[in-house]
Structure formats: structure tokens, C-alpha cells
Amino acid sequence: MSIDYSQKIPNNVNLSDDRALQRALEHWQPAFLDWWRDMGPDGSHSFDVYLRTAVSVDPSGWAHFDHVKMPDYRWGIFLQPADPERRIHFGEHKGEAAWQDVPGEHRANLRRIIVTQGDTEPASVEQQRHLGLTAPSLYDLRNLFQVNVEEGRHLWAMVYLLHRYFGRDGREEAEALLERRSGDQDNPRILGAFNERTPDWLAFFMFTYFTDRDGKFQLCALAESGFDPLARTTRFMLTEEAHHMFVGESGVSRVLQRTCEVMRERGIEDPAEVRAAGVIDLETIQRYLNFHYSVTIDLFGADQSSNAATFYSAGLKGRFEEGKRADDHVLKSDVYRVLEVRDGHLGEREVPMLNALNEVLRDDYIKDSLGGVARWNKVIEKAGIAFRLTVPHKAFNRKIGTLANVHVSPEGQLISEAEWQANERKWLATDEDRAFVASLMGRVVEPGKYANWIAPPAVGINRQPMDFEYVRFN
Ligand SMILES: [Fe+2]
Ligand SMILES: [Fe+2]
Q: What do the Gene Ontology cellular component annotations say (predicted)?
């Protein structure tokens, strides 16, 4: 499954055997590049960036590192190898051979799933396009650009499926993916969190930790799909996604490390004094966490959803690690507990599991995201500081599903509108918080140097030395 780089579009799907498809994608390619020039990282087009490129889909050695100009990055189509024996392993088609083509009756739903996933990929590039102007180091700048080019490649991954399997409406959807814009009033991206701004590097690290992890869970659920090309595409995307979450987890960790260092050196705890020392106070970090976490868990959708049931029963979208679960993988008689508001209290209610599959995936996500927060707290603990970060209650600041209509504190208490108003500034990043964080953002471009508010990483990318020139500006 090595990748053919002699083609205009690198691929491991024998694109040159299908002339019509190749032509259609080669027609979309310049439109993609136009989009990258307009909406990709601001002012970056002549930089040489130390990037990894996929040269194989073999897990033991798939990445090649070199300095490239981002518009010359070889965005391509890479699918995990096919298993001719693969069977659908959940839903009503369980036991049947996996589909190599789109079943007519599931066509509209599959297209919708692919478009929704595809739309998030360019959206995050748009959200992050100004961050390069304030990167705290060349190392961080390079990581931002790596995430950006790979989100561009994830767009290619979804566009390939649309072009290859959905004919004319697939091609139209592929064009629309380049036309919507994050945050645009008239033509926004499909999902809420992808229309929020990512204005500073703390937001970027929180986004890559929390929101790219939503990507991981969605991709894991799609990697189970009975539609085999979707499963094979998303499996390789997951390999790339792991780095994005690393950028987020290690980024927040380095911010905490630096803050704690300064707090300890100066013996200060008061957030105002911490800010005056030029680092981000732990309280502000907590408010950013609360915001990104709550906005991200909304991405899993309504707690009860007949669409989720349909997607599962039809074999289109599985659960996280479907194959490791011990139930019947049809779920017709299973139940699941979801939150509900009853008599002024938050309680739980049992509902048919098929309808609660968004909630199942959200709960798996929540478990996974707690791990990094515990590791962040270790950094604070090691510095001998009593503060601990916490993940807010699942019902906090929700805008989708049953919980959208109530106010809940980070501890999970149902509260009144007035209590919410009185406390919101303590719980969610305020304009003042964001202005303070923005005031620290300044571009550091000397190799091996880091902005004052963030600690250096433990090791370089691809084991490069600390003063490595990850980005050359030319
Ligand atoms: Fe992605
Ligand atoms: Fe990502």
C-alpha cells in the first residue's frame, strides 16, 4: 500500500485507472489550492516548514519529514488496505459482507455523515489562520502548520469519497465544502464549535486537546462503518489525528508548567499577581477549559436522536471500539441512562440505547478526555501548588439537547437564570480574560527561544535539537 507520488494527486487508490474520477478531482484540486491561499495560514505561503508527509499507510513507518512550502504540500488520498473478508459487525446488516459501494437506501444518510465530517476539516484551518502571527516559538509554529495541512488532507479524504461514490451531488457537496466559511453569518460551517473563533494559543491548545478529540471519536465511530471505503479512509485519518491531540495536551501542559514555575519562584498565588508576572493564571486556564469542553461535548448532538439510531441500525456509524463490546451489536433491547430535568432537579432516565447513541459516544469521549486533565494536574501538583483543574459537569453550558434549556453550574447544580448571570464570568472565559491572554501573545521566531508564558517542550519534533529551525521565513 505504498503511495504513488508521481501523480498530480498522490494516492494509494489507483486513481489513474479511473480517468473520469481523476479528472474530476484534478478539477477540484486548483479550487482547493485557491481556498488554501485565501483561508489557509495567514501570510505563510512562502515559508519552508518542517512537515511530515505520509509516504505509506504502514503504521510502522508512514511519515517523512522535510522542509516544504505549504502550498506545495502533497495533499493526497490514502486509504488503509482493504480486507476482502471484512463483514458488517453491528446493526441490522450484521454478518453481511461490508459494502464496497453505497447501498441505495442509505445514500442520503451516508452523504450527510461524510459532508458533516468533511466540513469540520477546512473549518478548523479557517479558525486558526491568524495564529501563526503570534506563535510562541518556531516549534509551536511548525506544529500549528502541521495540524493545518493535515486538516486539509482530511478534507481531501472526505472529498475523495464524495467524488468517487456520490456522482454529481457528491461533486456539488465537495464544492460547497470550499465555499462555507467558519463564523460567516450567511454561509457558516455546519457545526457550532467550528464557527467559534480560535483567537489565541491557549484557545488553540484547548481546541486541539478537546475538539480534535471529538474528531477522534467521530472518526472511530466511522471506522466501524459497514461502508468499507469510509472505514478505511477514517482509519488512516486517525493516525494523523493523534498528533493534533498531542499538540493540545502538551501545549496546555507547558503553559501550566511555566505558570507554576513563576508562581513558585515568586511565591505568588493571587491571579492578578500571576498575570502581572506575564504568565496565564490557573483560574483563566480553568475558564478556557470550561468553555472548550462544554462547546465540544455539544458536537456529539442531542442526547436522544432517531438519526443516531438509524445510522447505527443501518450499519453506517458504529460505537467507539464497537468490536470490543460484549453485547449483541444490534441493541434493540438495550437501555441507556440519559440526563433529564425533573421537578427542578437533574436526574437520570433510562431510554432505548439505540436512541441514546450520541450520549454513549459523548460519555466515551468524556472518559477519554479526563486522562489528559489528570496529567495536567500532575504538573501543578509537582510544583507544590494546591490548585486543581476540573472538568465541568456534563450539563454545564450546553446548547444542544434536553440540557439546552436549563442552567447548570460546573458542579452540576440546576440554577436560576439570575444565578447563572451572576456567576458566568467566574466559569467561562470573559472578554477580559481573552484580552489578557491576547496581550501575552507575541511572535517568537528565534530558533530555540520561547515566549515567557510557555515552557519549552521536552523533546523536539522527530528528535531534532532544541535550536532547530522548524520554519524558515525566506
Ligand atoms: Fe481532521
Ligand atoms: Fe485534527
A: cytosol
